[in-house]
Amino acid sequence: MLTDWNVPFRTLIDAAPDGMVVCDQRGVLVLTNSEIDRMFGYAHDELLGKPIEVLIPERVRSRHHAHVASYVAQPRLRPMGSNLDLHGVRKDGSMFPVEISLSPCATERGMLIIAGVRDVTDRRELERDKVRANSYLTSAVEAVQEAFLLFDEHDRVRMVNSAAREMVGEAGDAAIIGKTFEELSRAILAGGIYDLAGESPEAWYQRRLAYHRDPVGTLEVRTRAGRHVRITERRTAEHGTVTTIADITDDVQRAAELGEARELAEAASAAKSEFLSSMSHELRTPLNAILGFAQLLERDRKQPLSQRQLERLGHVLRGGEHLLRLIDDVLDLSRIEAGRIAVSTEPVAVTEVVAEVVHTLQPMAARAQIGIVVAAGAEPAPAVMADRTRLAQILMNLGSNAIKYGKPEGRVELRTEVRGDLVRVTVVDDGIGIPADKRDRIFEPFQRAGQETGPIEGTGIGLTISKRLAMLMRGTLGFESEPGHGSAFWVELPRHRQAADAQPVAAVSARPSPLAAGARRHTVVYVEDNPSNIAFMRDLVEELASVELITAATAEIGLELIRARPPDVVIMDINLPGMSGFEAVRRLKEWPETRAIPVIGLSAAALAADTSRARDAGFHRYLTKPVKVDELTRALEDLLER
User: Fold this and answer.
1) DSSP string covering 322-347, please?
2) SS (H, E, C) 426-446
3) How far apart (Å, rounded) are the C-alpha atoms in residues 235 and 242?
4) Which residues pair with 480 in a beta bridge?
5) What angle separates helix 249-299 from helix 608-617, to the nearest 10 degrees?
6) pLDDT tens across 91-133, in order?
């Protein structure tokens, strides 16, 4: 035991951060510092004179004497524990990991062995955490379905998953770790993994290298096996690169299938539009003659019809108008579904529109023995922002439904009320009501509240159109109903905050035609191949004394007549035998002597695309069959009187 160590030396070793022990050649402890005492749980100098084996695990004590003797025989500076699993044993028997450094010290009393002891518990815990974190990272990378490669700042592969190995394994050396990007890319090219699509290997490599150096977006390539892959690269904070290679074959195929489905849907939509256009034309052409002559008979002043004849004629007009409404409803629904219908919102006087709708529906209500009125005592409603024509269409739909589904001797009432920033118009009836199980589908096309096979006429799309038109005008449409007691359908539209100089749109009042009096001073050429329509036009112009009508059955004959005797206005059918109306107008616009003659298009084609095409072709106006006498008369007045 060393008892004469001077105080400064003892103070020095006690200040050391690591534990220090000194033992003689027999392994007996002759000196310990305070860190050893603390580390192993002993009191000051309690270890002196004890064998050093008390500080090591019992399982290795029997062999330790031999280790000490071996070291004494060949003493040298030697670290221990950096690659060994060494443990120290505390006084209480608990163990902890340590690292030990041995150093011999020759003294006049013989050789001493100095051992530096370090508690590495915290470091081992950090190492275990690091190993665990690396294990998690490795597992996560392996779990990624896409091929994954991590390049370091020197552009060498540092991490790779099995998907990447599988993808590039056939390129040559399976040991990917440590390869540079260039080496790996060259190996992939040599292995023929990718389909170069006619591109040279060097050009492909340069393109791939350019993306690797500046990875913006993604790079999509195809493999020789017919698979589509997407390469994505991102820079790391350590100036490395993360590369993922995802198989997107299913996505590409799905996109192709969606594209084909979209093309089929568009083709089907185009076919539907073409069918509707054709149907409209075929139905409107005979309706033009039916309704046209019926209107002329009703207006005939030379040979007025008897009251009985007028009543029967009224049935013809109502039936024809109903058929025309059905055609218009189908076309409207088609246009709304295709997003090709537009509304023009402006300040509209609700009170006036309601009054007009009630007046228009009066005859229908009278035939059904139902009274239709505006709510008594109602204050004039403020204007709303709406399309006047579409608002009237909605109220006509709601009103006609209320009459059709009403009870004889019943009542339909139209009410208006202001609800904050909205104005609500409600159509109330005391009819049959709507069954509870039909209400959820009342606004779906062709749903007629259980009356699909009943005597009530209709297609079941009026409410569908009305609701969608209300939405286009930033409004809503709803209802309340009680079976056996009636229904209340309402439309709400935004209230117009009227400026001082703003005036709501009012209806245009009818007036006598100025073309009905005076000598013949205007010439109109009508090009039409249908004899009934020609006869109708002749009867119509008979009432316009100042207009002379010249007819032609084909566009070719019509062009000769127009050039020989330029008229004031041309009325041109579109679907003609031989040359079409579009081609005829194009030629009229080419000739200087006919270029300024206005042409009114008259056709049974009533889709929005037809109107747009006619406008682009150079028609001054485009009217659809069945033509309204007043509408055609006003168009002639605008052109001829001007």
Assistant:
1) HHHHHHHHHHHHHHHHTT------EE
2) EEEECCCCCCHHHHHHCCCCC
3) 6
4) 488
5) 80
6) 999 999 999 999 998 888 788 999 999 999 998 899 899 989 8
